[in-house]
Fold Phytase-like domain-containing protein.
Amino acid sequence: MGKIIKRALAGAGAVALTVTLAGTASVAGGHHSRVTTPTLTGWASLPAGTFVPGSEPSGSLVTGNLNGFTAPFADQPVQGFSGIADNGDGTFDVLSDNGYGNQANSGDFLLRVQRLAPVFRDNSVDVLGGVNLTDPDGFVPWKLTRADRVLTGADFDVESIVKAKDGSYWIGDEFGPYLMHFDRAGRLLAAPAPLDGVVAPETAARTGVPATLGGSKGFEGMAASPDGRYLYPLLEGTVTGDTAGSLRLNQFDLRTRKYTGKRWTYQLDSPSHAIGDAIAVDKDRFLIIERDGGQGATAVHKKIYLATKRSNGMLAKKLVVDLMNIANPRRLGGFGTTFTFPFQTIEDVVILDDKTIAVLNDNNFPFSSGRAAGAADNNEWITIALPESLHPDKRVLR
C-alpha cells in the first residue's frame, strides 16, 4: 500500500526529493472494522528535536524551562503544528506556529509551511521539505523584522491554513487578526486583510487603535466552504462586549476578497477554554477542537465537536471525540487500551474519509511536556475511527 511520491517544492527552504511512503494516513484511516466508540487506528510521532537541515540559527531570545534542550538552536525547529492541509497523496502541508510563544522572543523563528507524511508502519513522520513565508513585493505596509522580508514570529502569529485548488495558501493570523494569501512558494500575494472592529493587542501597540481582543486570540481555526468560495475564520477569543466564552465565526468571500457581514457564534463550554482548529464538513457543519489549558495530569477537556449553523446565528454542538478517552484495543504506540491526548495545545484536525479523522498536537517546542514531566513533547499524529459517519461533502476530501 506504499505510494511513490515525486515532489519538487519551490521557494525558500524548499527541497526536491523522491520518497517511498508506507502506511500513510489515508491507508491507516481506510482499513478498519466497524467500531462502536472512537478508536485509535494510527499513531506516529515526530521527535521534538527535529530541525530544518541547513537553515538558520533560532531561539536566541528563548528563556525559561526548555525541558532538556539548550538555546539557541543551530537550525530552525520543525515544530508547533497549528494548521494542516491534506494534499491527497499521502502528504500534508502543516503550518508551523509563530515560534516561541510570543512576539518578543520569536524574531529569529522563520514562519514556514512544512510538508510531512506520517508513516504508521513504523510510527514515524517523514519531513519532506517546505517553504518559508515571505513578502518580497512589500505588501505588508509596516516595517518587518528582517530587511530581506522573510516573515518571522515577531511579525505574525500564523495559526490556521487553507490550501486553495491552485496550490496557494490562505493563512489566518492572530496578531491582527489578519487573513493572508500566499502563493505555493510562500510569497505573500496581497496586503493582510483585517477584520473590522476586531483588534489584537499586537496591532493596538503598533497603530494606537484600542484592542478589542485578548493576546494570541485571533484566527486559530479556518474552514473553507466545499465549493471554494468562502473562508470561515474562527476567533480563539471573545471580542470585547460579546458574551463571555462566545467566539465569532465570520464569512469571507474569496471572489470579492471581503467579509460578507455574515457570522455565527460558537459558545465554549467554559470561558476559560480555547479552540484549536476549525474545518468544514460541508457547507453548514464544522469540526471544532475545544480544549482547556491543562497538560499531562491537568489535562481534562480536549474534545472535538461537530458544530452546525443555525438560523439564529449560533453554532449547535455535538460531541464527536473526547480526546482524553479513545479506545486503543491494539495498544498502538505502546499505550494502554485507553489512549489519551493530554497536550496543552491540540491544533490540527483533518477528515480522511467519512468515518476517519486525523489529529495533531502543537508541541510549543520546547516548552510543553504533556506526555512526561521534564521532557519536551513530540509532535504526535493520530488517526481515529468514528462509530458514525460524518457524511462529509465529498469536495472536502482530497
Remarks:
- The domain at 3-396 is CATH 2.115.10 (Tachylectin-2; Chain A).
- The first helix runs from residue 25 to 30.
- Residues 1-27 have pLDDT under 50 and may be disordered.
- The chain is about 5% helix and 40% strand.
